[in-house]
Amino acid sequence: MIISRAEIESAVAVYRASLARVRKTSAPSSGSDVEVVASDSFAPSDEAATLTALREQVIAQPYYRQKLVNELKRRIEEGNYWVPAEQIVEKMLGRLIVENIATR
Q: So what's the pLDDT on residue 35?
């Protein structure tokens, strides 16, 4: 399965939105005499900190490889770019299978 940067960012956005909803619902309302006391705590593990740093590095990378794009663009313009039909069919069928599984 290929996970794109857009999918990662989408998942992170959903997670942040859910955190915002939790914060809103746990915040005391103004005019209320009830005080909410947080008793839960969270301390991320070393592995979590490493994964967070890795995620930030991945997000900081460009979405595409400019050197590869320039090389492919040059080859296309020169008429030297060719993809075997078998590879095209294989990719199309693979994508069709993935989309079919996702809709079930």
A: 58
Q: What is residue 28's DSSP assignment?
A: P
Q: Is the pLDDT of residue 90 over 60?
A: yes
Residue 75 covered by a domain: yes
Using DSSP, state whether 68 is helix, strand or coil.
helix
- Domain presence at residue 21: yes
Phi, psi of 46 (to 5 degrees): -60, -35
The answer to whether 61 and 8 have CB atoms below 8 angstroms apart is no
Task: Find out whether 28 and 36 touch, Cβ atoms under 8 Å.
Answer: yes
DSSP letter at 29? P
pLDDT given at position 80? 93
What is the pLDDT at residue 33? 55
Residues 95 and 98: their CA atoms lie apart, in Å, by 5
Residue 100, amino acid: N
Task: State the residue for tokens 């005391």.
Answer: 28
94 is in which domain, residue-wise? 66-104
Kindly report whether the global pTM for this prediction surpasses the value 0.90: no
